[in-house]
Design a protein that fits this description.
4-stranded antiparallel sheet, alpha/beta, 6-stranded mixed sheet, 7 helices, about 25% strand, single chain
């Protein structure tokens, strides 16, 4: 029996007062890698924001990493986000501090105290994304792909149950996008569950996996054609 990490039942997703997705049913089990696709404005980002507590779940039932999204209180959101790793399109790194200090900031903010443990953890996540030799650099000294690797490392700091990657290759060129997806796939193969929103169909063809599509206000699974060998 596989463990359910995310479950939405008869959910409606709103962006401010606009209903963007209706009657959403979605289940993601531990260890899955799932793409969320759809055109800009189709509701992908609103769905992602609902999942990490940035938008309230007003209609329907939803649970994620053990939290009930329907009854989620403001003061529970930081605890929810500790169990999620969130990767954004625009990296969201702090430009006035080094890679190491960016990651240290997150650990301190989430209650870590022991500096030697923090150093070990930072080295561990940076080596997972191939950035362990660049911990002293400032974000502006890194390429877009390197910044996104650091952002992925940051998402791994608190050993999340689920990684939400919202258009993680949206600002990257095709070759770099493949590099970043290889990093995510490696993390997935170590047992992590990943939901990745993207509109990059080339990547999905290159790395096929379960795919959910937002279209016309609805969410449905796409059956992928097996490519002829």
């Amino acid at each position: 029996m596989s463990e359910t990490i995310l479950s939405l039942q008869n959910t409606q997703i709103f962006q401010r007062d606009n209903l963007v997705l209706s009657d959403v049913n979605l289940q993601i089990n531990k260890g899955e890698f799932v793409y969320l696709i759809g055109k800009t404005g189709s509701g992908k980002s609103s769905l992602m924001r609902t999942l990490y507590g940035d938008l309230p779940l007003e209609k329907g039932e939803g649970t994620i990493v053990g939290f009930n999204l329907k009854t989620l209180k403001e003061n529970e959101i930081p605890f929810l986000r500790r169990k999620l790793g969130i990767v954004f399109q625009d990296f969201k790194l702090l430009n006035d501090r080094s890679v190491f200090e960016n990651l240290l900031f997150v650990l301190k903010a989430t209650g870590w105290k022991d500096i030697s443990q923090m150093k070990l953890k930072i080295n561990e996540v940076l080596s997972k994304v191939g950035m362990e030799t660049k911990d002293y650099k400032m974000p502006f000294q890194l390429s877009g792909g390197e910044q996104q690797r650091v952002a992925i490392a940051r998402a791994l700091l608190n050993d999340p149950d689920l990684i939400l990657a919202d258009e993680p290759t949206g600002n990257l060129d095709p070759a770099t996008s493949v590099d970043v997806l290889n990093v995510l796939k490696e993390i997935h193969s170590s047992g992590k569950t990943i939901l990745m929103a993207t509109h990059d169909y080339a990547l999905i063809l290159k790395f096929p996996s379960k795919t959910i599509k937002c279209e016309g206000g609805e969410l449905f699974e796409v059956v992928q054609q097996k490519s002829a060998k």
